[in-house]
Design a protein that fits this description.
This protein has 177 residues and is of the alpha+beta class. The mean pLDDT is 81. It has a seven-stranded antiparallel sheet with strand order 1-6-7-2-5-4-3. The protein has two domains: 120 residues, Small Protein B, Chain: A (Beta Barrel), CATH 2.40.280; 31 residues.
Length: 177
């Protein structure tokens, strides 16, 4: 469950907002649980790079250290042509409520879960990251997920084909002979 306020629009519906990067491997490698939205503490050059939509969060994970949440492994490349840039894979502080941090900390300690970044986007001009509690999948589970995804895809294709045939049969006028 992503915690958002009712008046806020999803990413991409307001000017300047939109999705920067998605972690598509996260849904395959992990069984995703509860989701949270966190702000990012960034440098100016990092924001400029993100506005150009160049970022990689496929290896990003969250670690709780001394009561603060830190995003590790996110690659925001250095801004070209500057002398005062930033490091590409430096840890970045996540802006979360204390209650959310304690909930994440409990889940990782008690249940052995991990926290992965699933999406990076702008909302109302601010960089946000969607993080999820996740449990690692085994190879057998991944195979099962692939089979299930293929079966769902085939079922959707069959339904679309059946709907197309039904529509084409209705649109032609029937004549009696």
């Amino acid at each position: 469950m992503v915690t958002r306020k009712k008046h806020e629009a999803p990413p991409g519906e307001q000017f300047g907002d939109g999705i920067i990067s998605r972690n598509r491997r996260a849904g395959f490698d992990y069984e995703l649980g509860q989701k949270f939205e966190a702000g990012l503490a960034l440098l100016g050059s990092e924001v400029k790079v993100l506005r150009q939509s160049t970022c990689d969060i496929s290896e990003a994970f969250v670690r709780i250290e001394r009561g603060e949440a830190w995003l590790h492994g996110a690659n925001i490349p250095e801004l070209s042509g500057t002398h005062y840039g930033h490091l590409g894979k430096r840890p970045r502080k996540l802006l979360l409520n204390r209650d959310e941090i304690t909930e994440l900390c409990r889940a990782t300690e008690r249940d052995g879960m991990t926290i992965v970044a699933t999406m990076l986007y702008f909302r109302r001009g601010r960089a946000k990251v969607e993080i999820a509690l996740a449990r690692g999948r085994k190879k057998v589970d991944k195979r099962h997920a692939l089979k299930q995804r293929d079966a769902d895809r085939e079922a959707r294709a069959a339904m679309a084909d059946a709907n197309a045939k039904a529509k084409s049969g209705r649109s032609a006028p029937r004549t009696r002979t």
